[in-house]
Amino acid sequence: MTTEHTTKAGTPALTPPISDSRDHIEGPPWASYSLVVFGSYGTPASRPLGRLLQQLRETHPASLRVAWRHLLDTRTHSRAAGLALAAEVAATQGRFWSMNRELLAMRHYDLEDLHAAARRAGIDYYRLLDRMRERVGADRLRSDLASARASAVVSVPTLFVNGERFSGDLDAASVGAALHGAAPG
């Protein structure tokens, strides 16, 4: 059974909180703001989400940390789990964020696109496939699912700004305003 935690404002809180030892994090450790993304690859929202994250990185390079947690939307895309495993395998090679960007930008989600994405991310494709067959990263996917449940996340993408659920439009202006309105953390 999962207990949902809430913030002072009564909105669901990120559970567990962002952690260097647990999360894939990009951005400086001293950043004033954290953005945790629950996302899935291969959904209609994937490409716009990738563009949003890129815009936020460009406009807040020294003040934003971004963390990714998987919440697989297999109803929208049957290959979501495989693509998430590809990202986790890339993480074992220190290339999670490169692969994350490539997976969010993909159009067709077939093996040819995965091969091209791996090449652009600097990943050995055949080693990637072998490690995916071994289910490397499956524990992370289960852990992220547990976090989504504890944080009352039911759809992707869902964002948390400094531990509090973001409820505005998914555009750079709205998320940027939420970042600037959040208490530094």
Question: Using only CA atoms, what is the Rg?
Answer: 16 Å
Q: Kindly identify the CATH topology.
A: Glutaredoxin
Report the helical percentage. 40-55%
- Report mean pLDDT, rounded to a whole number: 91
Low-confidence stretches: none
In CATH, the homologous superfamily goes by the name: Glutaredoxin
Strand content: 5-15%
Q: What is the H/E string?
A: EEHEHHHHHEEH
Q: Looking across the biggest beta sheet, what order are the strands in?
A: 1-3-2-4-5
End-to-end gap = 29 Å
Quickly count the domains.
1
CATH architecture: 3-Layer(aba) Sandwich
Query: Given the helix and strand composition, which structural class is it?
Result: alpha+beta
- Biggest β-sheet description: 5 strands, mixed
What's the total number of strands?
5
- The outline comes out as globular
Q: In CATH, what is the class?
A: Alpha Beta
Number of helices: 7
What does this structure look like?
The protein has helices at 46-59, 80-92, 96-105, 111-121, 125-133, 138-150, 172-181, and strands at residues 24-26, 33-39, 64-70, 158-161, 164-165. The protein has 185 residues and is of the alpha+beta class. It has one domain: Glutaredoxin. A 5-stranded mixed sheet has the order 1-3-2-4-5, sandwiched between helices. A hairpin with a 2-residue loop joins strand 4 and strand 5. The longest helix has 14 residues, at 46-59. The model has no long low-confidence stretch (mean pLDDT 91).
